[in-house]
Every structure is written in C-alpha cells, then in structure tokens.
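An example makes the point: we print one protein in full, the chain in one-letter code, the fold tokenised, without further comment:
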Amino acid sequence: MSDSPFTPDETALLDRVQAPAGEGREILDAATREVIGRAPVQTVADLDDAIARAKAAQPTWEARGHDERRALMLRAADAIDANAETLARILSREQGKPLNGPNARFELGACSGWLRSAATTPLEPEVLVDDGQTHAELHYRAVGVVGAIGPWNWPLMIAIWQIGPSLRMGNTVVVKPSEYTPLSVLAMIEVMNEVLPADVLIGISGDREVGARLAAHPDIDKIMFTGSTATGRKIIESSAGNIARLTLELGGNDAGIVLPGAHPASIAQDLFWGAFINTGQTCAALKRLYVHDSIYDEVVDQLAKIAQETPMGNGLSEDNVLGPLQNKQQFDIVNRLVEDAKAHGGRIVTGGAPATELGELFYPITLVADVTDGVAVVDEEQFGPVLPIIKYSDVEDAISRANRLDVGLGGSVWGDRDEARKVAARVQAGTVWINSHGGLHPDVPFGGVKNSGYGQEFGVAGLKSVSVPQVING
C-alpha cells in the first residue's frame, strides 16, 4: 500500500465521481501503480444526452448576463480554493506531479486564478463608426455549446483555460478529459457544479470513440483541444461537417537560444525549470537548447549541478518536486529517444537510464550534450525529462536551426535583453520569452503557429475566441 493513504475528503470526493464498485476502468497511481479509483466509461449515447442537456441549458445561461455569470464563476473559484488540497492530492496520484514546486498545488492555484480572470476581464462593445449618419457597434455573443477536449499533463489547469472563458461568454461546456487523468477533472467539475446551474458544465468520461463523436457532433458549436498535432488534424477533419469553430493548442518542440555574453550561473535555474516543469511534460517547455560555444561547457555544468540536486520521487512526499512520467506510452518514447541519442554519439551528462529504484515510470533528468539537429531527441518532442543541448558558433545559424522544424508554440532567447529582443523577433513561435521560458499570464494571449495549432487563449483574445462577433448597425 501507499505510504500516504487516502484522506477522508479524497475518498468522499472520489466516490462522487467514480464508477460504482465493479464497474468502470481502473485508474492507477502514476508513482506507485496502485489502483486509485475507477473512471466511468460513458458511451456515445451518454455524450449525445450530455450535449442535448447543455444545449437546452445554454439560452438561459446566456440570458443571465455578464454580471450574474461573473458572480457565479467567482463562487466556483472559491469552491475550488476550498477543495484545493483534496484536488491537489487526487491530481498528484493520478497525474504523478508532486504536491510541491510548480506542480499540483501550483496547478490548483492557477485554476482558481484563471477562472477569476476569465470572469472579470472586461469585454465592452466596440464603436466602429459614429459619424452622424452611421452608428456601428461590434458585440460578442455566445457561440453556443463548447466541446472541451483536454490533455493528461496539466489536466485541471488546461480544463479551466477552456471552461472559464466559455462560461463567461454565455456558452455551456461539455468536457472530455484525457483517458489517463479523468478522475481529477471530474472531481473539479463536481466541485464547481456545487455552485453552477444544472447542465451548464458537464464532464463526460469515455474512450476515443466518445472524443471523436464530440468533435463531429452537429450540436457542438466550438471545439477547444489541447494535445498532439496528429489528433488535432483528426479534429479538424471531424469538425468539417458542422463547421465548428476551433481553438487548437497542439504539439511543440520549443527552442531556446543562449547568446554569447549570457551568464550561465544566473540563468541556469530558469533554464532548468523552463525545460523540466512538470518533469518535462509540458507543451511549451524548453525542448531544444542552443548554446554558444564560448559558454557551452559552463551552461552544461550548471544545469547538471541543478539536476543532481533536485529531488524526484512520489509526489505525495513533501520533499519531491519531480515525479514520474504519467503513462507507459510516454515513458517508452522518452527511453527510445535517449537510447537513440546514445547511438548517435550524444554524451549523457546526467540520467540516461530508467530510475527503476523509484518506480516503474520514473526517468531521471537527462541532459544530452554534444548532439545535433537531425537526431531524434532534437527533432522529436520528448515531452519528458530530457533536454538536448546543442552547440553553435554563429547566432544566425542558431536562429535558422531554431526555426527549421514545422512547429512553433514557444521559444526563448537568453542574454542581453536588447540583443535578445532582436533575436526573438525572428524566432517563429507564438510566444518568445526573454531570459525565461514558459511563463504564462491570464491577460496575455497564448497560441501557436505552424503545426502547433491556431487560435488564442487568455485575456480579451481568449474571450473573443469563444464567442461570435455581431455588428449592430443603426
């Protein structure tokens, strides 16, 4: 058994959302591989019923107006805060991320914070023309029913990124969480629904057939999806029949460029967490690091020192800030990429082999030096605790190499701020950070370019993305 048994609050909340005894699908603790609950296995028929209920509830929800919706959403945020520790423990077990560090408790704080931001961000009608003859205003109305399909890496926070703006603009939402992490998402929705009106927010737990039906359903007006580029393409095809609007946040392989003159010791901590937040299982994590040859060895050494000092283990331990890979499929990808890097001459600075002493799905922080473009660990998204570090001698070459792939979610440039800004303007990514990587703000739009998807989330742009514009002229 686990060293940390379920608390009464965890048991009570899980019992409200999981399948009855003997039914459903087993969900395992990512760290211990013990059964923590049984996810409901709902069908396409269940999904059809959920969408019908959401569609029926939507006009009344929209008619409540911004002020009433705002007040209810703020109460839902309070409910998340009141249950934050219980939700964080469920999340830690199911996803694997530790309670501490930029992990489970951090994620729950982000959930209530982003929900409050979506509730309170102003979006006023825009006067387009007012010349004495024509008065034209641009308003934003609810799109209808939003289908939200979420990932397993930040399951609660990304769900809120989809739910919050949608509810604020008067939409109802049907949420399909990842099959890997359904219980934590269903638990958060259960908590929010203590406050929200019936059928405004509905969670549905099912397999890929249910997800495919959600994307293609004729009564879904908007689809929000975070996940792989391959699945994003399927969603685009599925949505063609009903011309549903789309926001797609897809795969990335974010490049960082460390300029000559940067100070390795001063940037090392931010580089490390830019790459290894959530044990590297983050869409916009730093996944390729290009370092000028004049400071290459020092950057590698500084990162290695931090990796060796950063504790990894069961997320329910208060000491750990790095956890396991969430699932066997991702573990196998990470292991394959590291072995391939070794075969192609990569120098393993730290890690390099499964940490079986910690558990089945643990892989240590692995820094791969002296590797280059064209090797799989550089060209493919690792989505785990692996960072290839690539040496360069010419900044123009580094920019070209950073831009060579068909994805562009995020990127970063490290060094003198003025020089870094000039380089950042030439990096092909939806967001480019200066002397940091991956930090997000609820007022700052976020989205990718190239095969990393389209549409923006957060702030005013995010509210507009889950609504339809209407011009009132006269």
Notes: Residues 7 and 425 are 50 Å apart (CA to CA). The radius of gyration is 23 Å. The chain has two domains: 8-250+452-473, 254-441.
